[in-house]
Every structure is written in structure tokens, then in C-alpha cells.
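Our consortium's second objective concerns turning raw sequence data into structural hypotheses that experimental partners can test. To show how far this objective has progressed, the report includes one record in full. It was chosen at random from the queue rather than selected for favorable results. The single chain below, 146 residues long, was entered without modification.
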Amino acid sequence: MRRLAAVLLGLTFAAAPAAALEYRSVAEAGAVMFDAPSQKAKPLFIVARGTPVEVVVALEGWVKVRDAAGDLAWMERKTLAEKRMLIVSARTAEVRAQAEGVAALVFEAEKGVLLELVEPGPPGWARVRHRDGQAGYVRANQVWGL
């Protein structure tokens, strides 16, 4: 009986969504977000290439995602990339040469600008790159998608 309970408990956790946050970025220009996991479902809106999304639920071929505004929708898994992008959520994000508030300012990015996540930095920071090639560290509370 204990063995059966352990197997059932294990299956429950295997089917549950991951507890850790998982972010991806939209790989295709004009990716469609639907109200259900089907091509026949109602299209809700189109998402720009590079937009970061949080994976909430993953099914075969489909993922339910949350965007920076908190909206939930379904996307085909094939429209997502492993490459991670972040979106500036603060009015202005300061990208610095080092992961320190007093480090030299490399550039500023306005709200809505996409930045490529190069690597997570020290706690509270992330190393990012702008599409023009400039790179540095941004505070985690100034971007969404980490």
C-alpha cells in the first residue's frame, strides 16, 4: 500500500507544472497567441519577435504563457526560442559596466526596449546586451523576464 501511495504521489508531482519560473522568448515575427491550445481556437493577439514570456503550463506542442502585462494565452511551442530576452519594465533602465550602482553608465534603455540576457549576474543583477552590441549589467528590478 505504501509503494502504491509513493508511486501515485510521484506521478502527481511529475504531472504538475514546474515550481521554478521558466522564461522563453518569441522566436517568430507575428507569433499568434490563442485562448486555447489549438489552431482552431480564437486568436487573441500577435506577439513581436523577441518578446519574453513566462511558461506557465506546457502540453504537447503548446505552452500557456504569461506576458509582462500579466496576460495569459496559449502559443505553439515551436514559436518559442531558447534565447532569453528581457523587456525594460522601469521608465528607464540603467545599464552599467559592472554589477554595482556606482559603476560607469554604459547606456540607458527606455521602457519596452528588449535586451538579450547574456547571463544572470550577482543577486539583483543581470548581464545584458542591446541589439546594437552594447553590453553591461542591469538591475533585476528594472526588467521583466528573469
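The partners drew two points from this record. Residues 85-144 form a domain with the SH3 type barrels. fold (CATH 2.30.30.40). The two ends are 42 Å apart (CA to CA). Both points have been shared with the crystallography group to help prioritize constructs.
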